[in-house]
Structure prediction request, 222 residues.
Amino acid sequence: MAHGCAVYVAEHGAYPKGYGMGEWLGRQRSAARQNLSWMTPERIAVLDDLIPGWRDSAWVTGLAGHAQSPRRAQSNRQAPVPWEISALAVVAFWQQHQRWPSQSGQDDHETKIGRWLSAQRLAANRNRLRSERRVWLDERAPGWNPTGSQEDRWTRRAHQLSEWCREHNRLPAVTSETGASAGTERQLAHWFKNRRMEHRAGRLPAERELLLSELLGEFWKP
Prediction:
């Protein structure tokens, strides 16, 4: 059911409502709020990865940037769409059509997400795109920004990991499930795990190993 909800969100740009998937997702939210025993950290981690924002989707961001209840949000003509939902829609479009959505698309949906993707590219090229959003796109939508090289993305990821380690004084954990940045922590943990595996297999280039050693210091212990 979780994968079905993820596909629905990607295709429709909204969370499912009503019976079926909507009712199921509501039970997951309720269980998470009540800390029920069957809502394990592993289950929460899977839902966080597949359906970003699922725990808070009963609330939407208002035009002024404040949380509003669904009833009040309905009075707004256009409530902002969460960033992750638009990003998932772009990924789903690529998987279905093997091309990126265009601003002059064949239908309103393609045009909408095409404009969104263009805005992300523009922000990235002006260094105004938040690092966690750039990393999200790099990981799930490789090639989303033709002007950014793979080497640039790798280096940005290494610096982001270094900043995270300095801020928290530890390495990120794959099993993290708490806090607003839990998703970012898990992504960094998986990325670092893959680099260690590359090193042990002799597949990590020397210049990359040197960069990780310089950035991470004691945290880099192959």
Observations:
- The first helix runs from residue 2 to 12.
- Residues 57-80 have pLDDT under 50 and may be disordered.
